[in-house]
Amino acid sequence: MITPPGTSSADFAAALDGFREIVSPEWVFTEKEDIDLYKDAYSPFWGEPDERVASAAVAPVTVEQVQAIVRLANRYRVPLYPISTGKNLGYGGSAPVLSGSVVLDLKRMNRIIEVNEDESFALVEPGVSYFDLYNYIQEKGLKLWIDTPDPGWGSVIGNALERGLGYTPLPYRDHFGAHCGMEIVLANGELVRTGMGALPGAKSWQTYRYGCGPWVDGLFSQSNFGVVTKIGFWLLPRPDASLEGTITVPRHNDIHRFVALLAKLGAQGVINCAYWIESPFANTFRAGADHAFGATPDPEPAEWDVRAADKGLPSWAVRLCFHGAEAVVRAQWAHVQSEFASIAGATFSDGPLYRHPLSAQDLARVPKQVEIGVPNLAIFTAGARTREKKSPSAGHMWFSPVIPMNGAEMLRARKVFGDALREWGISPITSGLPMHYQERTFLMLFGFEIAHDREVNKKNRQSMRQMVALAAQHGWGEYRTHSAFMDPVVGAYSYNNSSLLKLHETLKDAMDPNGILSAGRYGIWPAHLRQAARQVNRRGDIQ
Amino acid sequence: MITPPGTSSADFAAALDGFREIVSPEWVFTEKEDIDLYKDAYSPFWGEPDERVASAAVAPVTVEQVQAIVRLANRYRVPLYPISTGKNLGYGGSAPVLSGSVVLDLKRMNRIIEVNEDESFALVEPGVSYFDLYNYIQEKGLKLWIDTPDPGWGSVIGNALERGLGYTPLPYRDHFGAHCGMEIVLANGELVRTGMGALPGAKSWQTYRYGCGPWVDGLFSQSNFGVVTKIGFWLLPRPDASLEGTITVPRHNDIHRFVALLAKLGAQGVINCAYWIESPFANTFRAGADHAFGATPDPEPAEWDVRAADKGLPSWAVRLCFHGAEAVVRAQWAHVQSEFASIAGATFSDGPLYRHPLSAQDLARVPKQVEIGVPNLAIFTAGARTREKKSPSAGHMWFSPVIPMNGAEMLRARKVFGDALREWGISPITSGLPMHYQERTFLMLFGFEIAHDREVNKKNRQSMRQMVALAAQHGWGEYRTHSAFMDPVVGAYSYNNSSLLKLHETLKDAMDPNGILSAGRYGIWPAHLRQAARQVNRRGDIQ
Fold first, then answer.
1. Given B169, B201, B260, which is nearest A269 (Cβ)?
2. Cβ atoms B524, B508 nearer than 8 A
3. Whole-complex ipTM
4. Cross-strand bridge partners of residue A429
C-alpha cells in the first residue's frame, strides 16, 4: 500500500477508518485495481517511477461528508486531491499532482439542484457532466442551451474551475466567466457560500454574482484553496436560429486587417462564437505523414502571395456562426460582410441556417454539434482519424499559450513555434491555428504525444518545457496546463520576483495551514513542501 | 491635530516626516482646512462627533511612492485610507471608515498609460476620471466609447472597484466586469500584477484577464486588501448607430411576462442596455410634494386594471436602446417587438436613431448622454429639479438592494418597501423603479436624505438600518453601501454564522497583518479592532 508522504502508516490507517465511517466502507478505495483508475490515462510518466498515483480514494455524496473528510484529513495530515468527474484529459486527468494523495472523488455528488427557465440558470454539483445537464434540459423540454467543450463527458463544475471553454456565444462559452455563485468547503471544513448565497433566503444566488464585499470566487479556479461543492451557471435561452458564414481574404498581409475586424466586431458583440483562422494556402505546404504544422517554413509574404494566387487559394479564412432570431442573424452576417468587403478580394459564402430546435435527423447532420451546445465525444474520432500512425492508446498533453489578438503577434507565434518544432524535429498534434475561444485573445493548442514508450515521453516532456520557456521569452503564457508542468508554467508568471505566486502562497498558508488540499496544483505548494518542490523543479526535469 | 487611533503622537509625527520625504512636503496635508476637504460631503454624521475625519492626507504620484508610504505606515502602524479621485457621493465620499486614518489620495496618479484602438482597451491609473478618458479618446479621434456612470467626474478605477455601473452594453457597463488586469501595491508594499501582467513582456495584460492559477482580482473590489495602482479596461468600439424604442403593456399582471421577456432577450444579448421599468399608471397616484414612491398603496390588480384603463395609461413601460450597425439594431428592435407582441395590448413606439459620431449640436439634443457613453454632470441638476423643497446643500445616502429579475419579486419589493416607507413616514429620493444595470438582476435605489440637521440625519440613519434589515428578511441584499453602513449591510450576508465574512477576515489577517489598509471597509476590520467594532455595531446605532 502507498502511504501519503508525511503521513505515518498508523495515522493513514486511522484516517481511512474515519473516511469509511463517514461515507461507508464501500466508498473508500484502497485496492490497487481501484486506485489505478485514478491514474492519468495520458500520463507523461507512463510506467516510470514519477508517474502520479493516489494512495486511496474516498467518494462522499453529501456536503457534510466532504466537511467531515476535510476535517479528518487535517487531523491526520492526509493530503487530499479533489476531483469532480476526473476527466481533464491532456491536462492531467484525475491523478494527483502529489503522488500518495487521497483522491477526493466528487462524482457521486451529481445532483442538478435547479434549472430555472425564466431566469436561465442552473445550479449543479461537481459530479454533473455536460451530458447530464443537457439530457435533463431535453427531458424537461426547457428552452435552454448549455455550452459544452469537446468532449461532453466532463464535469460542468470541474471544467469551469479549470477555466475551460466552449463554442456558443459569450459569456456562456467562458465557463468560469458564466458561473454565478459558489458553495465551497474550505480547507478547515467550514462551508462558505459566495455572492448572494451568503445572504440567507436570497433568490439571486445564481443571478447576481458579486454579493457585497470582496468577490472571492476567482480564488477557487485553478487553485487548491477549497473544495467547490456547488456552482450556479448562466444558460443561454435557446436561440431561434443559427447561421453560418465563411470569409476568405487573398493576401498574406491581409491578416492584419482581417484580425482587427474580427477583434472589433467581437468587442461589439456582432461576432460572438468560437472560431479559428485557417490558412487554405499554407495548409498545402505542410509536409510529412502528419502534415505537421511547421514542417516547412512559411515563404516570405511576396512569394506567399504569388504562390497562393497560382493555386487559387485564399491566404486566410474563417467560418463564423451567428445565433439568434433569423432576421437578426441575417442582418449581422450582412453587416460583417460589409465590413470585410473593405479588404480587396475578400469572398463570402453562406453556410447552413439551422432553425432550433432541430429534429434528430437534422441534428445528426450538423458537423460540429458543440457549436450549438450539444455535447458529444466526436472529438475522439477526429483525433483517431488524423493520427493514424499512432497507437490507439497514445494520448497527448496540451501546451496552450495565449496570443494577443492582432495579426503581427499571430504571425510571430506561427513563425516562432513553427521554427522551433522543425528545429527540434517533433510534430505535436496541432493545426497551428489561432483559435478564438476566449473573449479577446487567441489560443494556440499543441498536443504533445504521450506514448507507451518512455523515450518518446521523455523527449516530449523536454519539448514541452522548451515550448513553455520559448513562449515566455516572447511574452506568451499558458491559460491552463497539464498537472505535470504546473511549476514551470506558473513559474513563467514571474513579474517582480514572482510576487503573484508569493501572494498565492500567502493565501494558501492562511486558508489551508496544514496544506492538505491538492498540494502543488498550479504551482501552489503548502509551506512544508514548498522548499523541496522548488529544488526538484530547479533540477531540470519535471518535478 | 487628530492622531490616528492606536498611533502615538511621536510615531505619527515620524510617519508624517517620512511621508514628506517620500512625496515632498507640499503633498502631505495636515492643516484642518486641507483635511476637511476629505470629509464626506454627504455625511450622515454631519457636525456630530461620529463624523468621519482624516488625520492627514498624503498624495503620491508614483507607484514607488505608494510602496514607500505603505511600508512606512506598517512601521509606524498608521492606518491608511486609499482613495482614487474620492467622489463616491452617496456612498461615503472620500472620508475614511475609521476616523483618524491618513487618506492616501491617488488623484495625482492620473496617467492614461495606453488606449489601444485595434484591441479596444485602456490602461489607466486611479486618478483618471471618466471625463479624462473620454476627452483623451476624443482628442485622439479614436473610434472607441467609454462607459460612464452618473456623474462623470469619478475615477474609472475607483468606480470599478466599488462595482459601479453605467448604461452602454455589457460587459462594458459592469465596470468591474469590464476590467482586465490589475497592478496592486499589497499591504506589505510588494507590487503585484495580475492576469497576464504577471508574465514579463506579455502584451495581453489588458486582453486576457485570468492569467494562469487562481484569479485574485475580485479580492481587490469592495475591500481593503491592497492599493490598486493600475487597471486595464475593455472599451466598446464605437457603434454605427443607436436606436431607441419604447414598449408598454396594459395590465398589472402583464408584469410577469414583461419581465420574463426582458430577462430572456437580455440573456440572449438582444437587449443589451441599462433600462428601468416605469409604471405610467402608478405614477399618477403618488401623493405629497415629492410625489413619493409608496405614498399611497398600490391597488389590487383588478382595481388597478380598471383605473389604468379609465385613465388610458399603461401599467408598465420600458425604454430600450440598441447599439450597432443600423440594419442590425433595426432587426433587433423588430424582433423584440415581435416577442412582446405576445402580450395582448402591448404598444411599441420608435425612439430616435442616432448615427455616430454625433455632431456637437446633435449631441446636445440627446436627453441622457451617459446612455451613449458621454460623461457629464447632468444628474445633479436632475436632483435639484425634483427636490425643490430641499436645501441645495442637502445630500443623500444610497440604499441599493438587488432584486431577482422576475415579476413576482419585483412586485413584492415594490410592496414591502412602499409599505415600510409609508409606515415610517419617510420619503427617500426614489422612483421605486426596478433598474436593470447589472446583468441578470434588478436594482432598486433609495436615497435617504442627508441634511444639515442632526435630527433629520439621525432619523434617516435609523431608517437606513431598518431598510437593510427589512430587505435581508426578504432575501434582498445590497450591491454596495455607504461607508457608514458597511457593518450592518455586510452583516446581512450571514450564511453559516457569517462564514464568508470570516474568510474575508482570514484573508485580511494574512495579507495585511498590521491592519493598516482601510480598516472597516466592507465590514472587514483588522484583528486589533475587530472586537471593538463588533461591540459598537451591536450597540444599535451605526458604528
1. B169
2. yes
3. 0.97
4. A447
